[in-house]
Amino acid sequence: MLLSVEQVKNSKNPSRDISSLLELIHKEGPSSGEILQLISLYKEFHEDEFEKIEEKIISSMGLFYKVPSPDNLYSFILSGVGDENKEVFGKTLTPVQASVRWAIEENQFVSISAPTSAGKSFSIRDFIAQQTGDAVVIVPSRALIAEYINSMRAAFGLDKKVMVSAFVDDVFKKRDLRHIFVLTPERARELFLIKSKLNVEVFFFDEAQMSEESQRGVVFDVLVRRVRKIFPGAKLIFAHPFVENPDAQFKKHGIVESSFARAYNHGAVGKICVFRHSNKRDFYFSPFGDKGHLLNRCIEFPGGFENFAFSNEHSILIYVSKASIYNGKFSAPFQLYIDSLPEIMEIQGLDIIETIKQLLGADERVHRSSMVALLQKGVVIHHGSVPLEVRFLIEDFIRLGYARICFATSTLAQGINMPFDIVWLESMRIIGESEGDRALSFKNLIGRAGRLSDKKKFDYGYVYTKSADLFSKRINEKYELSETSIVENLPDEVQEDNQELVDSIKKDTFDDEHNLPKSKVMRLSENPISSACRRILNLLYQREMISDMVIGKDNEPIRLALIVDFKLIFEASLARMLYEGEEAIFEQAIRIFLMTLGGKTFREIVGQRYSYISNREGSGAGGAKFSQKAEKLPNSSLVKKYPFFPNTPAKEVGYDAIVFDTYDYMDQVISFSLSDVFSAAFRIYGEENQDRRSDKMLELLRFGTNNDTYMLLMRYGFPPESVAEIATYVVKINEKEIVFSPEIQRAPSHIQEMVEWYLP
Predict the structure, then answer these.
(1) Do 625 and 612 form a contact (C-beta atoms < 8 A)?
(2) Of 576, 561, 634, 744, whose CA–CA distance to 215 is shortest?
(3) How many Cβ atoms from other residues are within 10 Å of residue 315's Cβ?
(4) CA pair distance 442, 448, nearest whole angstrom
(5) Which residues fall within 8 angstroms of residue 661, CB to CB, at 6 or more apart?
(6) How many CB atoms within 10 Å of residue 205?
(7) CA angle 407, 412, 415 (to 5 degrees)
């Protein structure tokens, strides 16, 4: 039923056409983006006729929860399917969700694909919620952690026997706990250190197409293989969007037993596409079929789409490049509208803004944060380098309805369930290693358009672009997973950095205790490394307070000596020297690490870096001082170093850019790139030399502190940025229990929310 927008709009008998469309959906379901678009267009252009048959269309789509009390015989008959699912699973599921649930119940290995909004993740999360053992959810980025933690905690309410956490540990032993861990592939390595204390029944790998990425695909596929080896009885569930061959996950890893794979094409939310023509007018268009964006097949959008979008009646996701966020140019085309917005006045919204301001250090007069200033207008910024605790608060801000505009990068394309009425594609530049990768990310991104409600209506959203031709090409691009694991065929660009890890997995020579290949462990056991560890400990623990050794201008020689020895350890693990660009990142990472050891908070570290790079001592004169942007190590492509702020006056250095970069240094470089190597080196040194100071160093590497209360609070799952504030309310804490003082009832609301689950 391929119709142009012009044919739908000018239909001579829309009632008949809508009835024919219902017949098609009854036979095939909402099985393509084209069908969902047609439903949306008929509702857009022929609302009165559509309304007469809307309930039947909803029922034919299998959205039974939207029609709890059918008004017609057709919907009543179909509702029996929903009733049957509710009787079996306790919830009114769509046919796709029910199919997924049956597959998970009956098979150990499941790999599925379905469009955004089809409800696949909901169905899997609901399955996890009804189990009794531990569960692990693997997500592609830190951006998705907040989404899953919030949804899992909502599923369990205040159930005191289920602990949902983004940190792997075994604490709160006073309660007989079931653990739900939400982790990135990198952080999942910590599972293997306490594997004997866990009873993991299911691993859910969401957005599992990350296995195709050249760099992170290695980490992902290695994780899958380690999971299969160490947790052989656990269910493994892979979920993807818009993938033609989800069974490729089984072929990658030699899985043949008890498996189910299926690609579902059924969606639940429609999309109406609008583009800006070179004649400066806006048109409805169809990206399906042949040249659906030609003007003779389109209909002009009355009054202009910009007036419609920015009428204060719609929530808008504006996709922009990360570079434009860093350089501050992302908001310029929309500044007039932003300026016209009233400031947020609601107490709850203001509390969130104030908390974010304090976490970032943006409450200082000279720390001008565009992100905070925009929040006061209900405009949010969302991307992967926003500090995790701040991201939690921003997503709460959006869900509570305070966000009028969200400027976002591709992190929102990675499955975060934050839909908007409109997705505005200010940029069509999608990052990806191939055209297929870019098309997949693009489909995921525009999947944010349209809010799926519980109301008895068909839901749809709008997508706006300035390049209808490229839009059409990407939406029709097919995406297939490789049937060969990246572990079996390393791309040239990542071979040097990952070959040793891959070989250790293949040859079963990976050291689980140290989380490294045994060949690396051997190199870290050699005498020069042992001597470097001893020198580091001698310097750090020379005085009672580590800060006395690493903080202040007078201690610069000590910091330089520590950088040399840490570098010696890391280069030994690589069996090569660092390249110039890697070295610049490494040195900055160690300096930030030493600041954390000296007791500096995140906001203090950001403030110090900002003062240095923007030359505050010189009143902002001259150019920005050198600092290299954070990137994971090792990275053999970083042969040369390059400045984060090239040709930038010092006074124009953005505070937010330093916030984002500092978080990336602490998370991507220190936690993920360096921590395992240094932990292994000091663990080996401690075992061989009976030096108890190595245990203290291991605490510093994991928690950034030797303060027992702070460390335990982090082990209980509290974010590092909040432990100092929370600690003032702690009466007693150990691995068995945590007890808060009665004063907690008068703590700030964000603290009360964080500790609520931990109270008796």
Answers:
(1) yes
(2) 634
(3) 18
(4) 10
(5) 385, 609, 627, 629, 630, 644
(6) 26
(7) 160
**How, if at all, do strands 259-263 and 422-425 pair?**
unpaired
635-677 pLDDT, tens digit each = 999 999 999 999 999 999 999 999 999 999 998 899 889 998 9
Q: Which residues fall within 8 angstroms of residue 636, CB to CB, at 6 or more apart?
A: 496, 497, 579, 582
Taken in order 593, 598, 603, 606, is the CA torsion positive or negative? negative
Residue 162: helix, strand or coil by DSSP?
Answer: strand
pLDDT band at 412 (very low <50, low <70, confident <90, very high): low
Token pair 């080896």 is at which residue? 229
Q: Which of 94-98, 187-191, 651-655 has the highest average model confidence (pLDDT)? A: 651-655
In this predicted model, which residue has the larger pLDDT, 411 or 195? 195
- As a whole-number percent, the residues of the chain with pLDDT over 90 amount to 62
Lowest mean pLDDT among 20-24, 55-59, 141-145, 753-757: 141-145
Query: 730 forms bridges with which residues in the sheet?
Result: 740
Angular region, 323: left φ>0, alpha ψ -120 to 50, beta rest: alpha
Which stretch, 65-69, 127-131, 223-227, has highest mean pLDDT?
A: 223-227
Angstrom distance (rounded) from CA 721 to CA 718: 8
Please state the pTM of the whole predicted model.
Answer: 0.89
CA dihedral 381, 385, 389, 390 (to 10 degrees): -20
pLDDT at 297 exceeding the cut of 60: yes
Query: Would strands 510-511 and 516-517 be described as parallel, antiparallel, or unpaired?
Result: antiparallel
Residue 710 DSSP label: H
Distance CA 534, CA 532 (A): 5
CA 394 – CA 375 distance, rounded (Å): 9
Residues 166, 142: Cα–Cα separation, whole Å = 9
Instruction: Express each pLDDT in 40-61 by its tens digit.
Output: 999 999 999 999 999 999 999 9
Answer yes or no: are the C-beta atoms of 357 and 363 closer than 8 Å. yes
Q: Which residues contact 383 (CB under 8 A, 6 or more apart)?
A: 143, 322, 325, 408, 409, 411, 660
Rg (CA), the chain: 27
